[in-house]
What does this fold into?
Amino acid sequence: MSRKAARPSLRYEHNRERPASRRQREQGERPWLVALVVLPVATGVVAAMALVGKAWGPDAWGDLAPEWPGQGYGFSLTLGVLEALTAGACIAPLARARRKGNKLRSAAWGAAALPGAVAFGLVAAVALAGMRPKKRHRSGGCHLEGHPCWVHEHYPYAWLVGLVAFAAVGLALLFTIGIRADQRAKDPAPTAT
It folds into this structure.
């Protein structure tokens, strides 16, 4: 059986450009940026959420929830809606940032997302302060007014109301942000006159 040679259009042509080396790819990824900036900022955000949850959470649930329209369930509903809105305020600017486009403009959109991220962290910390800890992690003050065990005795399904509100409003916002981002991608950029 004889083998036929490939047609000229199917022959392999040598690419004279050398592929990027591992060092060049790593320099482009900038792992030092993650180690020096992103990780400490993320750690600070988590620590701030924990402190806010300890400082404001019991007061918010104890003082505001009983007086809120709908009491604890209404308060949880409000927190869920606020979480979705603040998450949308963080995601919407990030959807406008383009990594391959103007880097200064992308950095500006990233900075515009920070207030939404901070607000989301604060609202989420207050919402999470109402979560009842496991039995082995409960302190003596768990049943005091406004603390997690008290919240769950008076409003046992507050977490579910907040979660449903967050999911419903959050999905609507993500859908809207996605449609707008898709429209921006399809529309040609305006030309300068």
The mean pLDDT is 76. Residues 64-131+144-183 form one domain. Residues 77 and 161 are 6 Å apart (CA to CA). DSSP finds seven helices and no strands in the chain.
